[in-house]
Amino acid sequence: MRRIALFALFVGFSAPLLISAPAYAQATRTWVSGLGDDVNPCSRTAPCKTFAGAISKTAINGEINCLDPAGFGAVTITKSITLDCTGTFGSILASFTTGININVPVGANDPFRTVKLRGLSISGVGISGSVGTRTGIRGINILSAAVVEIDDVLITDFTQQGILDGRAIAGAKLFIRNSVIRNNTGNGISAGSTGGANATIIDNVQSINNAFGIAATTGNNISIARSVFSGNTTGVEADAGATMNIDSSLINHNTTGVQAASGNIRVSSSSVSNNSTGFSGSATTFGNNRFIGNSSLGTAPTAAALQ
Fold first, then answer.
1. Which of 38, 114, 194, 219 could cross-link 53 (Cys pair, CB 3.0–4.6 Å)?
2. What is the pTM of this model?
């Protein structure tokens, strides 16, 4: 009887330990896999299944990597982090939602406030009735962060913007490189940050078959190089109070190629061709561009004063 009582006492003390989930310390590098499980510690040998599951186990300024080709789910990012699927096929299928929300607020005890996205495919295609169609809201929605870097990312088929930068902070930075933003009902890229003195750098980007290829609101300064804006309702647009410098780029087959206010779009070494209207508003040219095949040139751009 005494042995039975001692065994019962041991089981009583041990049971909570057996049924409670293990607690894991946050790691600077974690992993996701199509064969993973979000109850895992997200290590390389015990990966998580989704980005959302891995984020809570990844330290500030840490990195989540993809082990194999899979869809890893929509995610909200609230701290400095890198999502990197370079070398494999990592995707997010965002049906009836936004693919990635970025909201790293001021005062979040995060000295970096930097989000880096690499090697991702983000799609808004979903099923409506029995038909596959655009159902996702936005590809990437930037609410708050100091710096956002987007490299080698495909964003396609959303009902609103491919990328919306709506930060209300001054001096925000957005870098987009080697990426394709296509087939979105809204703008491919909306540079709508409202804090002032915001910088967006675009290099080797294709924004095609959207409403606006890129549109910038007051206070946003855009630099574009080696990029393509094609098949959009408007290729590039800047409101009064925004500036846009375009170099070595192609703006073609849009309804309107360049839509500018107050001469705030400056074009150099670029081709504005085969648009219904080449220019609307007052843009500036450095005299080394090619304007050909437009149904109408529209408002002839002003020659820049060279120094």
1. 38
2. 0.90
Give the closest residue to 141 by CA, choosing from 155, 128, 152. Answer: 155
Half-sphere exposure of 207 toward its Cβ, with a 13 Å CA cutoff?
Answer: 34
Cα separation, 290 vs 70, whole angstroms: 43
**How large a percentage of the chain has pLDDT more than 90?**
82
Structure confidence at residue 132 (pLDDT): 79
- List Cβ neighbours of 23 (8 Å cut-off, separation of 6 or more): none
SS3 letters across the chain: CHHHHHHHHHHHHHHHHHHCCCCCCCEEEEEECCCCCCCCCCCCCCCECCHHHHHCCEEEEEEEEECCCEECCCEEECCCEEEECCCCCEEEECCCCCCEEEECCCCCCCCCCEEEEEEEEEECEEEECCEEEECECCCEEEEECCEEEEEEEEEECECCCCEEECCCCCCCEEEEEEEEEECCCCCCEEECCCCCCEEEEEEEEEEECCCEEEEECCCEEEEEECCEEECCCEEEEECCCCEEEEECCEEECCCEEEEECCCCEEEECCEEECCCEEEEECCEECCCCEEECCCEEECCCEECCCC
Residue 304: per-residue pLDDT = 86
Residue 58 · residue 40 · CB < 8 Å = no
- For 72-96, what is each residue's pLDDT tens digit? 999 999 999 999 999 999 999 999 9
Low-confidence residues of the chain: pLDDT under 50: 1-21
Domain ranges of the chain: 29-303
**Residue 299: its pLDDT value, please?**
95
What are the beta bridge partners of residue 60? none
* Token pair listed for 232: 């959009």
pLDDT computed for residue 195 by the predictor: 82
In single-letter form, the type of residue at position 147 comes to V
The domain defined by 29-303 folds into Pectate Lyase C-like (2.160.20)
Instruction: Specify the length of the chain in residues.
Output: 307
